[in-house]
Specification:
Length: 266
């Protein structure tokens, strides 16, 4: 006779019928958007680095305010939303982000010979903000024992943030030493919005993914060293990340299975 208090009855799982699929649950996806932290940062980065080159250069009401400025502001708001519960991280992100936006905007109204230095200052603040976000998210992603959708979004965000950091560094180098990169002779739509130069954002993405089309190439020793470093970091990050996520997922499944198994009779 089976003791129900020791062995709880389980509802038999219905077999999967060939040719059928699990129903989609859009509400679960929306729950991730409203309940997750890192999906907002990931979305903002995708908009900045993929949509930005398409429409970021367009002005809004011809007032020296560009669509790209909104995208950079969206990344800042996403970062603030992710860490608003921690006062120290919240203040740091807001301070760096607002300072970068103010310095970059002020540089547009200065004489031409002063604009470059203000742009360098703004890009340096962007680099600090993105690097700070990398440290915060990585510390969470690589120490958690639970792998869920938000953890995966955080992992993707770190990968895109690394590309963003190198894009800002390349942009600074291009301003200081224009001959550091070989650029196409005709560039469509010069982008004066905030954030990294769109060509450098493109170059950073194809470098970290080791695609390397060859249309933009580093010419100086420093530019080549930075490109080598980004390619190495990108590949090592993916290798360590996949191992970490798979290992955490397997250990979580083993732990849940051990809890469900009945204890041996005394």
């Amino acid at each position: 006779m089976t003791d129900d208090s020791v062995m709880p009855s389980k509802k038999p799982s219905s077999p999967t019928v060939p040719g059928t699929y699990r129903p989609l649950k859009p509400l679960g996806f929306m729950r991730l958007y409203f309940g997750g932290r890192y999906i907002w940062i990931m979305t903002g980065l995708f908009l900045m680095m993929i949509i930005g080159p398409l429409i970021g250069r367009f002005e809004i009401v011809t007032s020296h305010f560009y669509v790209g400025d909104l995208l950079v502001g969206g990344v800042l708001l996403a970062a603030v939303r992710a860490f608003f519960k921690d006062r120290r991280h919240f203040v740091t992100c807001v301070t760096l982000g607002i300072a970068a936006i103010l310095v970059g905007t002020l540089g547009r109204y200065l004489p031409v010979h002063d604009q470059a230095w203000f742009t360098v200052m703004a890009l340096s603040l962007d680099t600090l903000l993105l690097s700070y976000l990398i440290l915060l998210i990585s510390a969470d992603v690589f120490t958690t024992n639970e792998v869920d959708a938000d953890t995966i979004c955080g992992s993707i965000s770190v990968y895109l943030l690394i590309s963003g950091v190198f894009a800002t560094v390349y942009s600074i180098l291009l301003l200081i030493e224009p001959a550091a990169f070989f650029l196409p002779e005709e560039t469509v739509g010069e982008d004066a919005s905030l954030g990294p130069d769109r060509l450098m954002a493109y170059f950073s993405l194809i470098t970290i993914t080791t695609v390397g089309y060859g249309d933009i190439t580093p010419q100086s020793e420093l530019a080549r060293s930075l490109a080598n470093l980004e390619a190495i970091i990108g590949q090592v990050y993916l290798t360590v990340l996949v191992a970490r996520l798979v290992g955490s997922h397997i250990s979580t499944l083993a732990y849940d299975r051990s809890k469900k198994e009945p204890s041996p009779p005394a």
